[in-house]
Amino acid sequence: MESVCLALDRVTRLLDNYLPLPNAHANDFLTLDMWSGMLPDGIASQLDGLSRDRDLIELFQLHRNRLLTDEGHWLSACQSLDGMPSPNPPIDIFPNGQFNKLAAPVWRHTSLDTLARDCAACCLDCLRVAAQSFAELEQHQQTSSSTDEASASSTSAFISHAMGIKKSHEVEQMSIICDRLARSRGVDLLVDVGSGKGYLGACLYLAHGQRVLEIDAKPGNTAGAIKRRDNLEEKWRFLQRRAEGNVKRLTPEEYRAEQEVSASSATGDDEAASFCASISAVVRDAQHLADIVVEKCGAKGGPFGLIGLHTCGQLACTLLQFYDQSPNCGLLVNVGCCYNLLTEAFCTSPCEQLQRQQEAAQSIEPPAPGFPLSARLQARRFCIGRNARILASQSPERLADSEDQRQMHRSMFYRVLLQQLLLDQLGRTDDNWVVGKIGKQCPDFLAYARLGMKRLGLAELSEQISDECIVEYEHRFAHVERRLFRFFLLRCLLAPAVEACILLDRLLWLMERLQQGDSPPPRLCRIFQPKMSPRCYAIVASK
């Protein structure tokens, strides 16, 4: 626990000083003059002086790689973070829990080089508190397991069907790890809460012979998962043969015999050994989950495991609490995502305030806060902020010059121009203005501005503004586009630190809850390749 606390302290010390930067909203880049207002002259000059936009990301990657291999470089970064003072008084970014968009960071770095190094040092792999592979996790917990060739072949058969490269990678790795852990820990049922399309559960059932219960709040997801799994079962033997390199065409007699074998195995003695059931339900608490397990699976005391592949927002925190509160839950493997959907205890954004008001009007009980969970950060009343949580889903390594990225950058630029245009025309802006993802529909700023004003209910204003006036904004502020993107990249350097703060807080909370028992301590484990699946860390725990 001490190493986790030390890592969390390093991350929060960096965020204490720079949190206004990831919380800065790109829409306000021009209207609040963020380039001059948030950046010291030296940093702004260095950003202007970059020969390419990618230079900043490559600098971050260079430091990250050195931190993983060069002990002296890592120690220098640790000394910098350990010696970094927190602002006194603290930055007033969330007065009374409300976001202050005028707050500015306290700059502790005079060069992009040292800032990139310290941001890289706050990545989970550089903090040295997470297992960097499942093999490392098993070695740490002094357990071992193996997957036979038949299981590996079955997994290959499954992932080759109806999934993209990213999802295939995730389902393959997650299913293998869940299967190994379940067998080594004596867990005979895996419960996937928030199962979505059901790929993980179907793979565990078909490829690994596990007993799986899928629970999702949306009936449409459940119906789709059942249909998808039924189709897979019909094709399963062919997919297995194809994975094994045996794809000969069956004779009618061989096909009928295979179908009879499939039908008999579905109704025979093996049914108790493996199955996959899918239901629609909103799980209220740990006792409700236990009741569902008994009702649907007949498990009257046998250990079960809670699993989740990219569990969305608040649900990831809820599953940690279910694991803690369920005596029969012997295993947890959870990969979270969608940090923007978390509820914070000590701050809210304008759009979150509006959502809470709408929920209160409908007598909807607000969710329990999902951050912070640990006593360490609760005592500090630590806040992150919605914009920073949105940024945490960005991966600096994936910010390449792809067509999708260029489209996103141009859309961001157009949105900034629209904000300035509306301020000039109306004399005000509104934090609740949302135009949505309209960039791909708009070949130029003129089309974007017209559609954006329509989306904002400002069609009458749009009619009063000439085409020439709108087009003139793009020409007048053309020099801003490059600065806007580099400011965005600078903010993205802090994204791994924000994600590390969220995940270390969850891990520390579990450690605080479970430290009295005899079980191995919970761990963070990287189970996916980060470039393929940026949300690549799972929280793994067993009792």
From TrEMBL:
Coiled coil: none annotated. Residues 166-344 form the Methyltransferase domain. This is Methyltransferase domain-containing protein. It comes from Macrostomum lignano.
